[in-house]
Design brief:
By secondary structure, the chain is of the alpha+beta class. About 15% of the residues lie in helices and about 50% in strands. It has a 28-stranded mixed sheet, sandwiched between helices. The longest helix is centred in the first third of the chain and has 22 residues. About 25% of the residues are buried.
Length: about 625
């Protein structure tokens, strides 16, 4: 027989012997090798008590493992990450030639998997290997899980769950158990379609529900492949006593609020989320919008649109937060400047851009601020609202606001609050409706100060506060009394109006002390000037009014009128000379003797207004 005949026969014979060897290979002999490689990859000793082949001759061998255990990493404490009483595996022997095992059937009995995440975020199941997405999924013809559990304990998010796991061809996957979310008990159910068979290469339907008295959520949709939690599309709902409880589930860095109900459509392509059709309520506020959430290099970026028909900022405080606020008000008294926290430490790893729109702002009482529009940019502990527009009853309050907490020299400073806002096309009456004083209102606010709340930052700020009202009206009685013309102030008809030529207020602020420079009210009846200062830290007033009528008066009060108290509750100190008949007679005597002093002339409102708004 020639070589041309023998050669192919020998090759064919060798190939046949290799195929026979592959079909009859004693896979149980690899137990030690598998243990060693698994232990090396995990960095801790894995153990397999028994590994044996349960069929005799096949290119699709079945292997049974018993007594499998993988310990937790040392930092997670004693115990096993995974313990399996028995696992039976069928795979394609030919797939080993490609370097990837193709699992065809998998049966598990008596498995317990304990997943642990500590306060630093270390995960016991993370072996350090990077997952390469998009790989081929196993086409299982059989999957059966019995008498098994998954235990999850997360100290970083303060949540845990203990689930009983079952799976088979007919019923699919069922996981049921109980858990805790920040100490609140919940029931957990996860159900999925059949994992084995033709469904393995198709979208896999699933339903997950977390249900408790204080917090809960549902997800119903499909994963791109069975158990592929990194790629899914779902209709989601959530509720909670506050948004921070819901955030324990979804991990988006959300604050505590009033009770919340939300629904949305979500799409996950690990590590990103896309949220559309967001609808819900927080307290008495409603919200809607969409967002994308991307996680890269340990940072989270949120970009989206949020709009509301009706919104109450107080709904952004939880009951505990409101209780703390009430306790503080009882201690320091009622204040105008809110004590809202602006510390950005909790969002130090969050960036993003949100476009905001609120149709109607809700307040506990009356307020000229009616709507809100703006764009919020957050980048590495610097938050900027630019542009920011607050719609007034009439007019707008527009400009920018920023909170900057970027570290300098490695030290995280107190936040720097900067406000640059302008009042445009407004009316004075909308800010002080009870005073019946009106006029065209314009102004500017330029303040910058450090503090962990708006109140503390304003209390240490420097800058300028300026308001100018022109060409309006004022009750004639009020105008006379501001000019210390007691006679006309007491005798003028209540319905009579005087002209408000201008009201000019400029407060130069240095380290939280706002000094009048100038403050005056000019009417057709009198000219009134104020001197002194306002302590923005305590909101205490230390002002003195000096009014001069523009005509001779029967009863004219000399000197100044002190204004004390706070911005919220001013206290006008009544001069002693108005408190007795004798002093009133003295005022009459000065009027008769012509010793009342000079009358006032019109102020240069144009120049004063320009100076105040410079």
């Amino acid at each position: 027989m020639s070589w041309w005949v023998k050669g192919p026969l020998i090759v064919a014979l060798l190939a046949l012997l290799m195929l026979i060897g592959l079909a009859a290979f004693p896979w149980g002999a690899l137990r030690g090798t598998i243990e060693q490689r698994l232990s090396k990859r995990l960095g801790r000793p894995a153990h397999i008590e028994v590994l044996e082949r349960t069929d005799r001759f096949s290119f699709h061998p079945e292997v049974t493992a018993r007594g499998v255990s993988i310990p937790q990493p040392r930092w997670a404490g004693p115990g096993d990450l995974a313990r399996v009483a028995e696992a039976r595996l069928r795979f394609s022997a030919f797939s080993l030639l490609t370097g990837h095992i193709a699992v065809e059937a998998f049966d598990v009995r008596g498995a317990t998997v304990t997943l642990i995440r500590d306060r630093q975020g270390r995960e016991s199941w993370d072996d350090g290997a990077k997952s390469e997405g998009g790989g081929r999924r196993p086409a299982l013809s059989r999957l059966k899980v019995t008498d098994s559990r998954v235990i999850y304990r997360d100290a970083k998010r303060d949540r845990s769950v203990d689930l009983k796991v079952e799976a088979d061809v007919r019923r699919g996957l069922v996981m049921r158990g109980t858990g805790l979310i920040k100490g609140r008990p919940v029931d957990v159910v996860v159900e999925g379609g059949a994992i084995a068979g033709a469904a393995a290469d198709k979208p896999w339907p699933f339903r997950a529900e977390i249900k408790g008295a204080a917090v809960g959520a549902t997800f119903k949709g499909t994963m791109d492949h069975p158990l592929d939690m990194g790629h899914l599309t779902a209709d989601a709902t959530a509720y909670g006593d506050d948004l921070a409880l819901v955030d324990v589930i979804i991990e988006a860095g959300l604050p505590g609020t009033q009770p919340v109900k939300l629904s949305a459509k979500v799409r996950r392509d690990r590590p990103d989320w896309t949220v559309t059709n967001l609808r819900g309520t927080i307290g008495r506020s409603d919200i809607a919008g969409s967002a994308t959430i991307r996680k890269r290099d340990g940072r989270t970026r949120i970009d989206g649109d949020v709009h509301s028909r009706r919104f109450d900022f107080s709904d952004l405080a939880s009951d505990a937060g409101k209780a703390r606020g009430q306790a503080k008000r009882a201690e320091v008294g009622d204040r105008v400047v809110p004590d809202t926290a602006i510390d950005l430490h909790s969002v130090a790893k969050t960036d993003g851009r949100l476009r905001l729109r609120v149709g109607t702002l809700l307040w506990p009482g009356s307020s000229p601020f009616r709507s809100l529009r703006g764009t919020m940019l957050l980048e590495r502990t610097r938050l900027v609202l630019d542009p920011l527009e607050l719609g007034l009853t009439r007019g707008r309050f527009v400009g920018t606001l920023s909170v900057d907490q970027r570290a300098g020299g490695g030290v995280a400073p107190s936040p720097l609050l900067s406000v640059a806002m302008n009042v445009r096309d407004a009316r004075l009456l909308d800010f002080f409706p009870d005073a019946d004083i009106d006029g065209k209102l314009s102004g500017k606010l330029r303040l910058a100060g450090r503090g962990r709340t708006i109140r503390s930052a304003i209390g240490q700020s420097s800058g300028v506060i300026a308001l100018v009202a022109r060409d309006g009206t004022i009750p004639a009685r009020t105008a006379s009394l501001l000019g210390q013309d007691i006679g006309r102030g007491l005798t003028t008809d209540k319905r009579e109006l005087a002209t408000l030529r201008c009201m000019v207020t400029r407060l130069d602020v240095q380290n939280g002390i706002a000094r009048a420079n100038p403050v005056l009210i000019d009417t057709t009846r009198a000219l009134t000037r104020a001197s002194g200062a306002v302590n923005l830290r305590t909101e205490q007033l230390s002002l003195n009014l000096a009014g001069t009528p523009k005509a001779k008066s029967i009863l004219r009060l000399s000197g100044t009128v002190p204004i004390r108290g706070t911005i919220k509750a001013p206290d006008i100190v009544i001069p002693k000379e108005t408190k007795s008949v004798g002093n009133v007679l003295k005022m009459l005597g000065r009027a008769i003797a012509g010793k009342q002093g000079a009358t006032a002339q019109d102020a240069d409102c144009n120049a004063l207004s320009a100076q105040a708004l410079r």
